[in-house]
Write a structure and sequence with these properties.
mainly beta; 5-stranded antiparallel sheet; about 40% strand
């Protein structure tokens, strides 16, 4: 009775390197935020309640928010809180998500009363103007990147 010795195959160095390379990159992906922390941006937020029933309008309130990705801030609109969550944050662009639909102000075209939009982009050098999708009274938010 003869026994055949098992054959041991070894990977070539090149092949082993190609297979191992992706595994070496994975820990680096988790360190990106530690190496390059998320940017912090200052937003200017002007909250303006309005009413179609009166010539005199409530006074606008201007405030600032220091935000980074994941930050939330709240503003009052018609007695209800609107929560803004920062989804993306750079010095050139901030993407916000709201917990309630708002309508982008379209100048002379007005607003979309049937909107379901809850994601908005603020760009450097521009002012995002969004409002509650209501007819007789509401709240408008003007948001810009400060600086």
């Amino acid at each position: 009775m003869t026994h055949v010795a098992p054959t041991i195959r070894t990977l070539s160095t090149r092949r082993a390197t190609l297979l191992a390379a992706p595994l070496l990159l994975l820990p680096g992906c988790a360190l990106v935020d530690r190496v390059r922390p998320a940017e912090t941006v200052t937003l200017t937020v002007v909250t303006s309640p309005w009413s179609g029933w009166s010539r005199e309008q409530p006074e606008a309130e201007t405030s600032t928010e220091e935000v980074t990705r994941g930050t939330t801030f709240t503003r009052s609109a018609m007695g209800e809180d609107v929560v803004f969550t920062v989804r993306t944050c750079t010095a050139r662009r901030v993407v916000l998500r709201t917990d309630t639909p708002l309508s982008e102000w379209e100048g002379d075209e007005g607003i979309d009363l049937g909107t379901d939009q809850d994601a908005f982009t603020v760009r450097a050098g521009e002012t995002l103007k969004i409002t509650t999708p209501t007819m007789d009274a509401g709240t408008t938010f003007e948001i810009s990147i400060a600086g």
